[in-house]
Amino acid sequence: MTSIYGDALFVDPRDMAIRLLKEIIRRKLPIQFHCPNGLHLRDISSELSTLIFKAGFKTLRFGLESSDAARQIMTGGKVCNEEFTEALICLRRAGYRDQDIGIYLLCGLPGQTAEEVRESVRFVRSCGARQIIAEYSPIPGTDLWDEAVASSPYPIAEKPLFQNNSLLPCRNDHLTYEMYHSLKLMTRTPESTDI
Fold first, then answer.
1. Domains in the chain: boundaries
2. Minimal CA–CA distance to 55: which of 7, 98, 101, 17?
3. H-assigned helices in 68-131
4. Residues 6+ apart with CB under 8 A from 89
5. What's the N-to-C CA distance of the chain in angstroms?
6. What totals of helices (H) and strands (E) does the chain contain, helices first?
């Protein structure tokens, strides 16, 4: 299995991805692909989904980040809920099963609440895809950096060690470490169980 880590692989697919996928199919290359990073969903269409499937892409991971419309805009507007659900329909029609499609949801963004993350998990679950919580890590120079510095209980600007996502550097009273663990557990429980 070959892993592809580029999250923009399917952005503007006519420029590269479609030609690449068609060539892989034409050559009948005996390769299986795994995409562990949060690929962009916006340009996923029926044609692209079919090519991805035929070219041997076995496991796909996409970044939704949040189902909250305001948060989606705040984090760059890469995809909205309607585009997300349409992409899932295209991928299923191409042959993907729900367990083949993992969706990353960010947890620990500046000012984020556990309820926002919980609602995002519920939304992805209701669409039939796997929910995967990814912990936010503040990165100097990004759009959220100043907000992260202001909201973090740690001196993240002075000590880069505190930027480590495993600490939940921007946790708050509405998203504690205990709540985070409960959310992680929620993604591992059957649909009927909601923590």
1. 1-96, 105-195
2. 17
3. 69-74, 81-94, 114-127
4. none
5. 35
6. 7, 5
Report pTM: 0.91
Nearest to 103 by CA among 122, 77, 90: 122
> How far is residue 156's CA from residue 147's CA, in Å, rounded to a whole number?
11
Q: Whose CA is closest to 108, among 176, 184, 178, 159?
A: 176
| Lookup: tokens for 55 | 């070219």
- CA distances for 167 relative to 64, 136, 159, angstroms: 22, 10, 13
d(C-alpha 34, C-alpha 145), whole Å: 31
CB 148 within 8 A of CB 182: no
pLDDT tens string 80-108? 999 999 999 999 999 999 999 999 999 99
